[in-house]
Design brief:
Bound molecules: adenosine-5'-triphosphate, magnesium ion
Largest sheet of chain B: 2 strands, antiparallel
Strand order of the largest sheet of chain B: 1-2
Distance between the termini of chain A: 29 Å
CATH architecture of the largest domain in chain A: 3-Layer(aba) Sandwich
Structural class of chain B: mainly alpha
Helix content of chain A: 25-40%
Structural class of chain A: alpha/beta
Shape of chain A: globular
Oligomer: heterodimer
Order of helices and strands of chain A: EEEHEEHEHHHHEHEHEEH
Largest sheet of chain A: 6 strands, mixed
Largest interface: A-B, 33 and 23 residues
Number of helices of chain A: 9
Strand order of the largest sheet of chain A: 6-7-8-3-9-10
CATH class of the largest domain in chain A: Alpha Beta
CATH topology of the largest domain in chain A: Rossmann fold
Number of helices of chain B: 9
Radius of gyration of chain A: 18 Å
CATH superfamily of the largest domain in chain A: P-loop containing nucleotide triphosphate hydrolases
Strand content of chain A: 25-35%
Number of strands of chain A: 10
Chain lengths: ~230, ~260
């Protein structure tokens, strides 16, 4: 059961820049699900995902995760369940090279060095990063490569819920197809994915449910293509 | 820490020259008094000014906490320092005297006031304006001593003011990134390890930024020795009168208190 419920949820950055106003909404379901958030730049997708990831907490109203108030969740408990991919990879990565960075995620996990290494290598292969890039620091990678690396750094841990902020931006069509397969496999493995994207075709192909984020509201989308027509995406 | 915040208040609208000069004056005048009462007046006035300047309290919470600890250290360091006055409390060689208590309250308050004063200026004045004003003040000096590097000082000050918040932002992102990846530093050793681990990425990003900035400045043909122009017209307005009044009241508070001491003698 992965469900977020928003009750009278409002958010403004430093109480000044209003992003959401009085939102009442349920997102998610009892079964693994792929949920997409679409909307114009600056509409609040990143903000929404950050709230869902318990990284932003100075909102008003309530957000429940699995029927329990997000603010009541213990940090350790919550982080075991929910991971987030940040929008810009350079904000997510910081170790001296990509492999070390992926291993960093497993830093405090109860695994042997070999087990960690195996996991890291497997996930780097999964996202399609060739071996010769593994020893490079993130700032010597291309934008798309850095995004793959950041994704790997999140996927290496087995969490039930994945919040991915624009996993599709700046990647080539081959990787996009790869990402589609990854999404479907993760879902099959019982994980729920909530992601934001400007890639309407990808969203349409992969998502079970789509929400529009715009003008301080989050609404279920009946028709993604129409939204595209209206220029929302 | 020392962030600028967007708002439309008299303090934001006031002329940067006025604000910088008054801040400087007040800064000096603060060292001319040793009275706790005056410091309390300063503190109360500053809080009022912050309130009028639409301070985003949520944003300064972290900064306030940091200051609190620094003030506590200042207080404790001064508390046992003095030998003069009536002894209030004594334990072996450690003693608190009346004067020690008074002084430590005074020094703590002055410390807080100094920080508030600087924060008020930097919170309501764009870094570029502060740097330009300071640059103008330094200009005659730069002419007199061309090799002393006063010309570069303006751009250095600008960069420092501009980058301090960015640096802080970088730290916040590193912490966020770790949490997003499910890394929980819940024990003391993990916390220390986490802080040490942030040093290298911070340095890397600072160097990377410096590199990008150097390229950007070069591309725009920047020359620190050329006369800088500004697109902002600085005129005297009602806002300046209000701000000047606030600062003058405080400077008068110091002067009056000084006078009273003279009369005492
Ligand atoms: N740190 C911040 N401080 C102040 N305002 C912010 C901050 N981050 C975002 N905002 C504002 O909040 C609003 C929502 O931003 P958000 O990043 O959530 O949008 P988004 O939908 O993710 O956009 P994009 O598609 O460009 O990623 C924007 O108007 C933005 O200007
Ligand atoms: Mg975003």
């Amino acid at each position: 059961m992965v469900i977020y419920s928003f009750k009278n949820f409002s958010y403004a950055y430093y109480g000044v820049t209003k992003v959401f106003e009085n939102l009442n909404l349920r997102i998610g379901s009892n079964n693994p699900q792929i949920v997409a958030f679409v909307g114009p730049s600056g509409s609040g997708k990143t903000t929404l995902l950050s709230v869902m990831a318990k990284l932003v907490e100075d909102y008003s109203g309530e957000v429940l995760f699995e029927e329990k108030n997000l603010k009541d969740w213990k940090e350790l408990e919550f982080r075991k369940k929910v991971l987030m991919l940040l929008q810009s990879p350079e904000k997510q990565l910081f170790e001296e090279n990509i492999l070390a960075d992926v291993l960093y995620t497993l830093k405090y996990d109860n695994l042997t060095v070999e087990e960690k290494m195996l996991k890291a290598q497997r996930v780097l292969e999964l996202v399609g990063l060739p071996k010769d890039r593994w020893d490079k620091p993130y700032y010597r990678l291309s934008g798309g490569e850095a995004r793959k690396a950041a994704l790997a750094a999140v996927l290496v841990k087995d969490s039930e819920v994945l919040l991915l902020d624009e996993p599709t931006s700046g990647i080539d069509s081959e990787t996009r197809q790869e990402l589609y397969r990854i999404f479907k496999n993760l879902k099959r493995a019982g994980k729920s994915i909530f992601f934001s994207s400007h890639d309407v075709y990808f969203v349409k192909a992969v998502s079970d449910e789509v929400f529009f984020v715009d003008n301080g509201l989050v609404k279920p989308a009946e028709n993604v293509e129409k939204a595209r027509y209206w220029g929302v995406v | 820490m020392f962030n600028y915040w967007e708002a439309d208040t008299v303090f934001h609208r006031a002329n940067p020259i006025v604000k910088v000069l008054l801040t400087f004056l007040l800064l000096i005048s603060m060292f001319f008094t040793k009275k706790v009462e005056v410091m309390v007046v300063f503190f109360a006035t500053f809080i009022m000014m912050f309130w009028l300047a639409d301070t985003p309290w949520a944003k300064v919470k972290g900064f306030a906490r940091m200051i609190f600890w620094l003030v506590l250290i200042t207080f404790l360091l001064n508390l046992f320092y003095s030998e003069e006055g009536k002894i209030l409390w004594q334990f072996w060689k450690l003693k608190i005297t009346e004067k020690g208590l008074y002084d430590s309250i005074y020094f703590s308050l002055r410390f807080v006031n100094l920080i508030l004063l600087v924060q008020l200026l930097l919170g309501t004045t764009q870094p570029i304006d502060v740097a330009t004003v300071v640059g103008r003040v330094f200009k005659p000096l730069a002419r007199l001593f061309p090799s002393a590097g006063f010309a570069e000082m303006e751009i250095m000050l600008l960069l420092a003011l501009r980058f301090l918040p960015i640096f802080q932002n970088e730290i916040e992102w590193l912490i966020k990134s770790k949490r997003a990846r499910g890394i929980v530093e819940d024990t003391f050793t993990k916390k220390v390890d986490g802080i040490v681990g942030m040093v290298v990425p911070l340095l890397i990003s600072a160097f990377k930024r410096a590199e990008e900035l150097a390229v950007a400045l070069e591309l725009r043909g920047f020359d620190p020795f050329k006369e800088r122009t500004s697109y902002v017209k600085w005129e005297f307005s009602m806002a300046d009168v209000v701000v000047i009044l606030f600062y003058l009241i405080l400077i008068f508070a110091v002067i009056i208190q000084k006078k009273m001491i003279v009369w005492d003698i």
